[in-house]
Amino acid sequence: MAIIAAGCNPAITDESAMTISLYAASVPVFKQMLNALSDVLNKAEAHATAKNIEPNALLQARLFPDMFPLVRQVQIAVDFAKGVSARLAEIEVPKYDDNEVTFADLQALIAKVLAFIDSLKPEQIDGKEGIEIVTRPGTPKEKRFSGQTYLLTYGLPQFFFHVTTAYALLRHNGVEVGKRDYMGAF
């Protein structure tokens, strides 16, 4: 089963609809955005140095007091990239301590996750649209998804929320980044 890219353009009919694999809709997207996030973090660190700002002021910045700080936003974005990819491939999700406190720590975390998802092959993920994925099993927040629904309605939106929030935190704090930085190379 493939994801159908029809419906957005009335000129595309079901017969002429283009298909995209589950792998193509996940791993390359995660890689693009994690590389962009890494570049944005580099700019943030350079900004802190150039402006004599204590790096922790940016690393612990929040958009609002009840929101997670930058460090946690990056950790969660990375967790979704590795977790979604691993679950779709039906392999164990790598466990990390989430103890990063510096820009260098965050860069190392991103590099580790990029290496992990880069090790996944299309054949490990393609065709897994119908597998059952259970999040928070055995808890009141338990949810059950098909592989495709998990990626498209849960995993990607969560991932983009945290990447976007990390970007917004830095932009709000004066780091000169724009849409091109957010998008990265594509």
Please provide a written account of the structure:
- It is a single chain.
- The protein has helices at residues 27-50, 55-59, 70-89, 103-118, 122-125, 147-172, 179-183, and strands at residues 3-4, 19-20, 132-135, 143-146.
- The protein is mainly alpha-helical and 186 residues long.
- Strand 3 and strand 4 (143-146) form a beta hairpin.
- The radius of gyration is 18 Å and the shape is globular.
- The model is unreliable at 1-7 (pLDDT under 50).
- This is DUF1993 domain-containing protein.
- InterPro entries: DinB/YfiT-like (IPR034660), DUF1993 (IPR018531).
Features:
186 residues, Four Helix Bundle (Hemerythrin (Met), subunit A), two-stranded antiparallel sheet, two-stranded antiparallel ribbon, 6% strand, disordered N terminus
Brief rundown of the structure:
This is DUF1993 domain-containing protein. The chain is built from 7 helices and 4 strands; from the N terminus they run ββαααααββαα.
